[in-house]
Amino acid sequence: MTAPTSTTRELDGVRAVVTGGASGIGAAIVTAMLARGAAVTSLDRTPDGVPDGARAEVADVTDDAAVRAAVESAAAAMGGIDVVVNNAGIGAQGTVADNDDAEWLRVLDVNVLGTVRVTRAALPHLRASDRAAVVNTCSIAAWTGLPSRALYSASKGAVQALTLAMAADHVREGIRVNCVNPGTVDTPWVGRLLDAADDPVAERAALEARQPTGRLVSPEAVAHAVCYLASPLAEATTGAALAVDGGMHTLRVRPP
Ligand code: NAD
Questions:
Q1: What is the ipTM, given to two decimal places?
Q2: Is 187 in the pocket of ligand 1 (CB under 6 A)?
Q3: What's CA 163's distance to the chain center, in Å?
Q4: How many angstroms separate the most distant Cα atoms in the chain?
Q5: Mean pLDDT throughout 5-31?
Q6: How far apart are CA 59 and CA 45, in angstroms?
Q7: CB atoms < 10 A from the CB of 207, how many?
Q8: Distance from C-alpha of 92 to C-alpha of 101, rounded to nearest angstrom
Q9: pLDDT higher than 90, residue 253
């Protein structure tokens, strides 16, 4: 099925920084924002894969100095920053017995502190904007006890709590902060997990059968939700978490 596209321009004039804009959900967000009229800078550790029409800043979100430089460069090039999408993230498998301290710190450094660093660097620009919004890519892992995802779930639980705390701290400054909580999204990330399985085709079929809709979530579906939360249309929405999971978190639908 071809993913539906927007025909509206609700992000006209909006200047956005999207982390992890070179792949998967982030690249779909960049494309969807450009289509709605935004100027977009991807902040990613690679420029390869950033959709045409967007600027690319190369920085690792674990490097505070590099993040600050990239955010300032983006603000200078775009004339300011109205929207930050904290989407860069990495996965981790295992129970608490499986990951050592170094692995915990590595993942939290990207998923949690990366969100903090980029938002902190962009705050002066967001404060100067009259339509400021932050959208964090969280996960249903923040809500659901997924087996063998202790570290990843804890990192996304922290992003969820951080979303609420930041929403409260900055609401009187006119900065809205929300998150999207995707289910299983058809991105290179999931592709890598499937490739590692003994039978990738059977594994994909099993994964699809577990979805209430019978199919994986498209990156575009997540991107449309992010665009809504980033746009002035969501002027009264802050501190919210929007599930984009095909019903996975809330529905109990038996596989056929
Ligand atoms: P992906 O691997 O396809 O893309 C991730 C992007 O983030 C890549 O471009 C990568 O270069 C960038 N990145 C990773 N670490 C970085 C760092 N330290 N500094 C800068 N950039 C970095 O993954 P995706 O599936 O598109 O996931 C994007 C986000 O969505 C992540 O936060 C992930 O936790 C979340 N998410 C994904 C799924 C899913 O099923 N794919 C589900 C729920 C949530």
A1: 0.99
A2: yes
A3: 12
A4: 53
A5: 95
A6: 5
A7: 17
A8: 13
A9: no
Say what the pTM is: 0.97
**For residue 256, pLDDT beyond 70:** no
Q: Which residue type occupies 233?
A: L
Of 80, 7, 95, 84, the residue nearest 42 (C-alpha): 84
228 in active site:
no
**Burial category of 177 from C-beta neighbours within 10 Å (exposed 0-12, middle 13-18, buried 19 and up):** buried
Measure Cα distances from 147 to 45, 141, 150, 153 in Å. 29, 10, 7, 10
Atom of ligand 1 nearest to the CA of 19: 21
Position 6 pLDDT exceeds 80: no
CA–CA separation, 100 and 6 (whole Å):
44
- CB-CB contact of 39 with 15 (8 Å): yes
Span from the CA of 172 to the centroid of ligand 1 (angstroms)? 31
Q: Are 223 and 230 in contact (CB under 8 A)?
A: no
pLDDT at 129: 98
User: How do residues 76-88 score in pLDDT, each as one tens digit?
Assistant: 999 999 999 999 9
Residue 11 · residue 36 · CB < 8 Å:
yes
What's the gap between Cα 10 and its chain centre? Answer: 20
Single out the catalytic residue among 152, 162, 163, 170: 152
Q: Does residue 160's CB lie within 6 angstroms of at least one atom of ligand 1?
A: no
Collect all residues with Cβ–Cβ distance below 8 Å to 219 and sequence separation of at least 6.
24, 25, 27, 28, 185, 186, 187
State both tokens at 151. Answer: 């570290």
Extract the tokens encoding 153.
Answer: 């779930």
User: 88 CA to middle of ligand 1, Å?
Assistant: 5
Non-local CB neighbours of 14 within 8 Å, separated by 6+ positions: 33, 37, 38, 39, 82, 83, 131, 230, 231
The alpha carbon of 90 and the centre of ligand 1 are apart by a number of angstroms equal to 5
The structure tokens listed for 195 are 């490739």
